[in-house]
Amino acid sequence: xxxxxxxxxxxxxxxxxxxxxxxxxxxxxxxxxxxxxxxxxxxxxxxxxxxxxxxxxxxxxxxxxxxxxxxxxxxxxxxxxxxxxxxxxxxxxxxxxxxxxxxxxxxxxxxxxxxxxxxxxxxxxxxxxxxxxxxxxxxxxxxxxxxxxxxxxxxxxxxxxxxxxxxxxxxxxxxxxxxxxxxxxxxxxxxxxxxxxxxxxxxxxxxxxxxxxxxxxxxxxxxxxxxxxxxxxxxxxxxxxxxxxxxxxxxxxxxxxxxxxxxxxxxxxxxxxxxxxxxxxxxxxxxxxxxxxxxxxxxxxxxxxxxxxxxxxxxxxxxxxxxxxxxxxxxxxxxxxxxxxxxxxx
Length: 346
Known about the structure:
Distance between the termini: 55 Å
CATH topology of the domain at 32-59 and 169-273: Rossmann fold
CATH superfamily of the domain at 32-59 and 169-273: HAD superfamily/HAD-like
Number of helices: 13
Order of helices and strands: HHEHEHEHEEEHEEHEHEHEHEHEHH
Structural class: alpha/beta
Number of strands: 13
Radius of gyration: 27 Å
Strand content: 15-25%
CATH class of the domain at 32-59 and 169-273: Alpha Beta
Largest sheet: 7 strands, mixed
């Protein structure tokens, strides 16, 4: 009877679930909701992090700073046409244009490029210069400035105006990038924005590589190339154009302010929208792995030591039951160490 009690692998069976459950609860308190079971273990194998820009590294609260007409229409008329198109979009950029007195029809979103639709009989496009210029007889004009995010508005006859948007970098973005560098991870910024703002943010944060003007297909191709080279990739994004990459990444995290489709495709959702919570999650994942190993080692050691004593009759069933209970209690208490939240990264 003592031998049967001693061989009961209670502590061994509790070693992993208790640590994972406790770590998951701690991450939820930090504002990170895990929706897939492999995230905690997977974070320990990541070596590359891919970031989106708008609404991820930046706050996504874009403001319209300037309108530069290029044709016969004045700035107010161009802004009205642009707002009519953007009012039909869920992208964070759309909120910068306010409400329009006109209604756009047959609006189509081209992920990573822009919008096209009809406003009062005028076929319009707004977004990346190359996309808007597809209907022009002449090539797209060059972006005239290096500050802010530049969108081109045009119709069938040619460009109508440049619209300049400003966005602010998240306060905790530098701390997240520092946490990635501390672990020796490669960092990439892949953005649909083709403006100089992409390179500006990459330089400010010390990101290893930055590419702008990328379509969802181009982002996915870049991710697959990284995975083919043997890299384990974490993707952080928020928009519809990030969905293919979020679904294909080894681990994907969507911002709490992301579109519903992005959150559904991601393995975790940053409910708090604080990038510092993600940096803390890296620490929790590392600690949970260490505690799981400690629990498994202790449970295996206990069972291995108690068996000979029970087999020779040196341990009574009562002492075997007491030892089993204490072993299980030790495993649970060790896992509860994960409830202590790691130091904030900003």
